[in-house]
C-alpha cells in the first residue's frame, strides 16, 4: 500500500509538471487555422471564424462551402463543435496516457489530425489535456484552439463520430481510471517482486601451498661379487 501511494504521489507531481510545460508551450504555439476536409475537398478557415460560428451561428463563405459539400445541417454542426463534455484533468491524465486511453485518442486522432497524419494521437492528447485544464470541460472547439500546431486538419464527415467518442471517453472515465490504476499496480508489484541480483562475493586470495622439497637420491645398489665360471679355473 505504501508503495502504491508513493507511485500515486509521483504521478501527481509528474502530471503537475507536465501541465505546466504544456501550458507554457500552448501560449507559444497553438492552432491558428483549421483545415476542414471532406473527401478530396479542403477549405482553410481561421479559428476565430469557427469560434464565431459556434457562438452565434455566423458563417463565412468558406464555411458555407464546406457545409454545402458535406450536406450537414449547420445547426447540428454548430452544436457538435460547441458541445462541452466534463473531463476532470487529474483523472483524465491517468486515463488518456494509459493503454486504453491512448488507443481511443489515436482513433480520434484520425479525424483531428496533423497534416502528414504522423503523431496525431500525441498532439490530440496534448490538446485535450490543455483544454480540460481551464475549467474541467472539453469541447471540439477548445481542442482545436489548444492544438499544439499552427494548423489542424478536421474531417467534417467524422465530426459526429468524433464527438461521440469523446462523450464515450467521459462516460467510461471511471471504469477506464480503475483499469489504468490496476495496470499501474500490476506494474509496481511486478517490479517490487523481482529477485534482486545477488552481489558477487569478494574472493579472498588464497596462500599458495609451500613448494615440495625434492626427495634425496636413493643410494646406488652395492656391487654383487662375480661368480667364477666353471671350466676357466
Describe this structure in words.
By secondary structure, this protein is of the alpha+beta class. It is built from ten helices and six strands; from the N terminus they run H-E-E-H-H-H-E-H-H-E-H-E-H-E-H-H. The chain has helices at residues 2-28, 47-56, 61-70, 74-82, 89-96, 99-108, 120-135, 140-145, 159-171, 173-193; strands spanning 33-38, 41-46, 85-86, 112-113, 137-138, 151-155. It has a four-stranded mixed β-sheet with strand order 2-1-6-4. Helix 5 packs across helix 10 (173-193) and helix 6 (99-108) packs across helix 7 (120-135). The longest helix is centred in the first third of the chain and has 27 residues, at 2-28. It is elongated.
Figure out the total of helices: 10
Q: Secondary-structure element sequence?
A: HEEHHHEHHEHEHEHH
Number of strands: 6
| Overall 3D form | elongated
Mean pLDDT level: 78
The amount of helix comes to: 55-70%
Unreliable segments (pLDDT under 50, ≥5 consecutive)?
Answer: 1-28
Share of residues in strands: 5-15%
Strand order of the largest sheet: 2-1-6-4
Largest sheet properties: 4 strands, mixed
Helix/sheet category: alpha+beta
Distance separating the two termini:
116 Å
Question: Could you list some keywords that capture this structure?
Answer:
233 residues, alpha+beta, four-stranded mixed β-sheet, two-stranded antiparallel ribbon, 56% helix, 10% strand, elongated, disordered N terminus
Outline of this structure?
This protein is α+β, with helices and mostly antiparallel strands and 233 residues long.
What's the structural blueprint in terms of helices and strands?
Layout: H1 2-28, E1 33-38, E2 41-46, H2 47-56, H3 61-70, H4 74-82, E3 85-86, H5 89-96, H6 99-108, E4 112-113, H7 120-135, E5 137-138, H8 140-145, E6 151-155, H9 159-171, H10 173-193
Parallel strand pairs: 1-6
Antiparallel strand pairs: 1-2, 3-5, 4-6
